[in-house]
Amino acid sequence: MWILLEYAAWAASACLLLWMLVDAARVNREYDEDTLLSSREGIDELLEHGDVPEAREG
Asked: Which domain of life is it from (predicted)?
């Protein structure tokens, strides 16, 4: 029984690795390096609109 669980765990790990590699290739194909390394989302976007309370205080 434990052998079957071990094989199932290895199979799940292999599937997860394959999914991660396919996703990394897809993201690399769809976006260029400038977009992936950009910090244009999150706090920078909020600062542009003045939605961050800390930005209004200073």
From this structure: Bacteria
